[in-house]
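Per reviewer request, we include the raw input and output of the structure prediction for the construct analysed in the revised manuscript.
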Amino acid sequence: MLSSESNAQRGNHELGGWYMYFFETDFGQSNFGIMGDVQHRSFNVAHDFQQFILRAGLSYKFKNSSFRAVAGYSFFNSGTFGPSNAQLIENRLYQDLIWTNALFEGRIALLHRIRIEERFIENQDFRSRYRYFLNAKLPLNSKAMGPKTFFAWTAAEIFVNGEKNIGNGQSVNLYDRTWLFGGLGYQFSKSLRSELSYMREITENQTKGQLILSFFHTF
């Protein structure tokens, strides 16, 4: 399965399509809440199943701070590029540390996230991974982010593996991949926004483009 995935990645040059819904809610006046997402990914924009993801975690907001900690679980069902119907199941535990700040008197909003993942993949040894995500938003029709705001945004995420040997005589590099994003979005209200973006995924073997449509819902 791993060999098939590797060959598929080298031969995959078409634009992918990722469709994502993110949700977030707090427990009343408590500092605790829930954050998660549901994603469907295709190797091509509208077909050739790549991945289905379910993820949810318990969050905690630190008082008088923009920091939030999250601990949770995610389920991954991954397909194989091309005509093969082979699929691979992965279960993950993850921990996030998220914080925000602003530049130029609030004109540019920044979001940072450090994520640690404990990965349990079929027919592989235990794996871990470390990720850093940085997102910047620039409002286009107002001075700051808020309801009825169009915005441009860019982001980057770097992935590093915790182990090289993954079992059955197979290994991976410590550097895993980089994601580079750019796109436009619209903040409908305090609780809902959407984003359309292009992402370039960079690994040691290739680069690949993804078209991404995302919805973010706070309730």
